[in-house]
Amino acid sequence: MSRTGPAPARRIVLVLALLGAAVAAYLTLVQTGVVAHAWDPLFGTGSDAVLRSKVSRALPFPDASAGLVAYLAEAALALTDSGDRWRRHLLLPLAYDALGLGLAAAAVLLVLLQAFVVGSWCLLCLCSAAISLSILAVGRLREGRQVLRRWRSRELSVPAAVLGGTTDRSDTSAPGDSSPDHR
Fold first, then answer.
1. What local confidence, expressed as pLDDT, does residue 96 receive?
2. 15 φ/ψ angles, rounded to the nearest 5 degrees
C-alpha cells in the first residue's frame, strides 16, 4: 500500500513545528526591537528581562531566530516523502530525529538558563520549550531507530545509508509493510 504525504505522527510534528516557528518569529521581533515589549500576562517584565539578557545576546544574532530556523527545518523534514521514507531515503529520518533531539536539548538548556542564570521567566519561551519537548514526544525516533537497526544487522550497506535508494543487501519486507510511524 503506497502512502502519499506525511505519516500521522509527522503531521502532528508539522503543526507543532509551525506553531513553534510562529512563537520564535514573535520572540525574534521582540529581540530585534520591532516589537517594544514581549506579551506576557504571567511573568510581566520577566520576558523582556530574559529576551534582553546577556544569555540571549551571546550569539551574534537573536537567539530566537535560531529557534525559528530550527522549527522551519523541522516542518520541512516532517513534510518530506511518504510513510516508508526510512527504507528509501535513509538520511532523512536520521536528520529528522537529530533535529528533534537538538530542539529538545536546547529547550531544556534554555529553561535551566532562565532559572539559574537569568533569574527571570518568559512565558512564550517556556511555551516554545514545551513545543520542542512535545515534538520529541510525538512518536519520534522510530524511523531513525529502524535505519540504525538495519545498519547494525548488516541489512543495509554504507552506500545505501549515505545515498539512499534501494542498495540494501537484503530487503525482506513485504510490500504491504508499514513504516514505524504507522504503529
1. 81
2. -60, -45
